[in-house]
Write a structure and sequence with these properties.
Helix content: 25-40%
Shape: globular
Radius of gyration: 18 Å
CATH class: Alpha Beta
CATH superfamily: Ribokinase
Distance between the termini: 20 Å
Largest sheet: 9 strands, mixed
Order of helices and strands: EEEHEHEEEHHEHEHEHHHEEEHHH
Structural class: alpha/beta
Oligomer: single chain
């Protein structure tokens, strides 16, 4: 990965106000079910990944949009508290994006989102941030903003030799030639199944279809598998990354975003892909022990990171 003296990560993506309900099970059709508790939290894949980068001590700039409402104010204020640079977050006439999360006792999560202001960001606005893109060491993207805008950013980053991480979530059709330009593609098993056109539920199935996944991009592909760990598909073939065991999973909201933010930290610090994946697995293992997304993500001190991870 090229350095060129760049000293920050730029995250371009979504910001959602999350409403998290902790409950024993999902309601049946037609049933009104009482949840055990409710938590309000900052969310959105983009904002979550930015927070994880910032909590690990990397200068991080967030680019996105929120509404001119109380939810938008709360999201921006919380990001600032975590040390994220919010100077490139715009305001929109649309309402702030909202996520409603049902977190079950076994750690399973069901979530729905309203895109709101997230879909008001435009390619023209990205062009107005040309120097920001050019000067980034790493750009992290997701698909909770318009796909055309994401593709525009990838092309621009490729032109400027900026390392890109695309978390292709939620899975959407993309220009395959643009996808080829991505340096690191990170998907979960559901998204991997969508892009490869084959069902993948575990590491063995990912390994069986590794060639299809590798063909998606000229860079690295990582498939996250929840409690089953993750799989790194690179020049060495398919390398499994074991999950870090914890005594109790509280809920998995934000675990994938924690993994991505921590992986970006690893690449920023010069780790190999394998080292960065192992570090990311450790970060996600901390996140699942707490409720919420951004609040649950670890700081570097919580990782007890005095050296590179063993590989």
């Amino acid at each position: 990965m090229r350095d060129c003296g760049r000293d920050y990560i730029c995250v371009i993506g979504s910001l959602n106000y999350d409403i998290i309900m902790k409950q024993k099970r999902m309601p049946l059709l037609g049933e009104t079910y009482t949840a055990d508790s409710i938590t309000y939290s900052g969310g959105g894949k983009g904002a979550n990944q930015a927070v994880q980068c910032a909590k690990l001590g990397i200068d991080t700039i967030m680019v996105g949009k929120v509404g001119r409402d109380a939810f938008g104010d709360a999201l921006v204020d919380k990001l600032k508290d975590y040390g994220v640079d919010c100077s490139c977050i715009g305001r929109s006439g649309s309402p702030t994006g909202v996520g409603v999360v049902h977190a079950l006792e076994d750690g399973t999560v069901y979530a729905s989102i309203i895109t709101g202001a997230n879909f008001d960001i435009t390619s023209r606005e990205i062009d107005g941030l040309d120097e920001l893109v050019r000067s980034s060491r790493i750009i992290i993207l997701q698909l909770e903003i318009p796909t055309g805008v994401v593709e525009h950013i990838i092309r621009k980053a490729k032109q400027y030799h900026v390392y890109t991480i695309l978390n292709a979530a939620p899975a959407k059709e993309m220009d395959r030639e643009v996808l080829k330009m991505v340096d690191c593609l990170i998907v979960n098993e559901t998204e991997a199944s969508f892009y490869a056109g084959a069902d993948m539920t575990d590491g063995d199935m990912v390994r069986a279809h590794a060639d299809r996944l590798r063909q998606l991009t000229d860079g690295t592909v990582i498939v996250t598998l929840g409690s089953k760990g993750s799989m790194l598909l690179g020049e060495e073939g398919a390398v499994p990354i074991d999950p870090v065991k914890v005594e109790r999973v509280t809920e998995s909201t934000g675990a994938g975003d924690s993994y991505i933010g921590a992986f970006a930290y690893g690449k920023f610090k010069g780790m190999t892909d394998l080292q960065a994946c192992c570090f990311a697995a450790r970060a996600a293992s901390v996140t699942v022990t707490k409720i919420g997304a951004q609040e649950a993500m670890p700081c570097l001190s919580e990782m007890n990171e005095s050296r590179l991870p063993d590989v």
